[in-house]
Structure formats: structure tokens, C-alpha cells
Amino acid sequence: MDTQQNNQMFEGNWKCSGCGAAITKLPFQPDPAREGELLCIDCHRSKREQTQKDRPMFEGNWTCSRCGGQITKLPFDPDPTRLDGLVCRDCFKK
Question: Cα(44)–Cα(41) distance, rounded to whole angstroms?
């Protein structure tokens, strides 16, 4: 089932704080106090990609607690006392 079809879209006349483009539909009702922080889809994607590039990755040898697969990189340094909750990227997406 495609969850995008079930999401309500909100229509309005907003402006992207990144590039100044018009935003006419959003998948959420924006907080009026934060309308100056809205981003169009292109600026949102760009910001997200940049954040992911800048994120440090931690290398190690861990096991996914769901499927038993190997995990060699994580976007955080896991707490050694809580390794039983680690999941691989595929299990996390599910």
C-alpha cells in the first residue's frame, strides 16, 4: 500500500526560506510561528543530503538483533551495554 496516497496535503501560499520559491502544498499544517523556516522539496532534499554527508560514521563489527546480519558502519557510536537493540539498515527500514 502506498502511504503517500493516505497523507493529507495542506494548501497555502508559503515561501521557501532557502531559495524563495513558492510553496503551495505541504504534507503537514505548518506552525504559523515557524512559517519563515519552511523549505521547498528541493531545498529540503539538499539539506538532508548535506546533513547525511557531514554525519560521522563509526566502524565496527556488530550483529543485527533481528536478522543476524553483519553491521560494519553506524551513524552513531553504540553503547556497548545496549548492543542487543542494534539493527541493520534493511531491518531499520522495515
Answer: 5
